[in-house]
Design brief:
Thioestr_dom; alpha+beta; single chain; Thiol Ester Dehydrase, Chain A; about 130 residues; hydrolase activity; hydrolase
Amino acid sequence: MTDHNGATVTHRRYIPYSHAHYGGNLVDGAYGLGLFGDVATELCILTDGDEGLFASYSDVQFKAPVRAGDVVEATAVVVRTGTRSRTVEFTLTVVCRAEPERGDSAARVLAEPIVATTATGTVVVP
């Protein structure tokens, strides 16, 4: 068994306004969980040469809003390597945010990224 602890994958994505689900251009929490599935898949390919299967979440915390017009980073880090399972910590951070009060297309890079969602999950590989 190879120890994959510390293996990390990060995806960056712009959230289009078509993904706003609630007032204030808020995006639903499931959007971030979908991104976690994407980084988990790449992480399994990187570490095990297989897409793997997402088995469960043991913890999900919604810490700050995610809005349409944000640029987010979804990161997955292996924190425990079992025979077939991997425990993975996920973080979704907002790195850029739209500023519609300055103009229709105004936005800025955040000096301090905002941690929006964290989770711990288990993936299984053959």
